[in-house]
Fold:
Amino acid sequence: MNILLIGAGGREHALAWKLAQSPTLTKLYSAPGNPGIAEEAELVTLDLADHAAVRGFCQDKDIGLVVVGPEAPLVDGLGDSLRAAGLAVFGPDKAPAQLEGSKGFTKDLCERAGIPTAGYVRTSSLEQATEALGRFTPPYVLKADGLAAGKGVVIAETRDEAEAALADMFGGQFGEAGAEVVIEEFMAGEEASFFALTDGTTVIPFGTAQDHKRVGDGDTGPNTGGMGAYSPAPVLTKELQRQVMREIVEPTVATLRAEGMPYVGVLYAGLMLTSEGPKLIEYNARFGDPECQVLMKRLDEDLAALLLACAEGRLAEFGEAKMLPETALTVVMAAKGYPGTPEKGGSIELGSAEAEGAKVFHAGTAMQDGRLVATGGRVLNVTAMAPSVTEAQRKAYAAVDAITFPSGFCRRDIGWREVERKRG
Ligand code: AMP
Ligand code: GLY
Structure:
């Protein structure tokens, strides 16, 4: 089978690397891809907003499965357009992709299905939002409704800060994404991520992970897309995972299906482990980045066959997705300045980073005159696996230290929660 993989980041490099190991793969194409993905796939240039062009490409190249990495094309309805032409697509249609595309949509769905999550109010004007603040106590959680590249959430300590943030949001700080704002109750607890694959009817767990959102060591500094992750997240015990499936993921899939918008793809549930049990913070309609990198490292299945089974409604054939029991850990190397204004064009030499079994996934890289350079933001994901989190961390940083990337930086404490727990 030929596969088209859409996307260009570290998540997609990890998917490409795993798809390339699938016995059922004939040829992998990637649009637009990156220099790491180019080692596994033929890169093609496609205008993803031009659905007819993508469809035409799939028909020309006899594509048996389209795997959509990022959320934007899904929220834009690329899945609908390709499915309408009879193509097999891994990734939801536009309507169910609202799970990620609209925070209000997800909150309403949780309410209809009785899914545990923070109490909330949807507001569509500054007056309405300011008035609604009175129904909450600090800290105030304010969310732009639409896609805002992970930046649309403000946690305000005081009422003044909250009012200022609301004024910015309704003033156009996040463009259209902020035309509506969801105000939520603050939930205290530890965060963890839970993944599940579904064909719209059958749902199977697909591993757990913990991300590190702040840019600096010790979880300090501004939020980023994620500076590193590890899997599994033992804080999500088997029992908690069963509870998450039963109380959160299964009712979500069943409700979407019953309401005529079956969800096909991966559900990425961001959870808060509160004293009252796990509660949903948010859904993403795609794999996490960099969580995908650690999941792919652990996955012990033919990924192409598994994703095709989702796309074709045959997921029941897979009772489970087997993962290796080891811990995988990935360290993000970013360009200095990230998440503000990252330096572009810095040179990278990977050296012997992969010599001891670590895998370096490319995120923001390009080839310039035969040299590998950073294109900004998150640049490399250095990923290692070992029987313990402590050993996985040591291996990943040994590989990081073998890389020469003077304009880059990384956190030095990825995995700290679990390493500390292990230390006891
Ligand atoms: P989101 O984009 O919805 O995942 O929110 C980004 C981050 O804000 C989450 O990873 C949490 O750290 C935090 N957050 C979001 N909603 C809440 C909430 N209701 N209570 C506490 N923290 C939250
Ligand atoms: N690492 C967080 C995300 O992919 O949204």
About this structure: The radius of gyration is 21 Å.
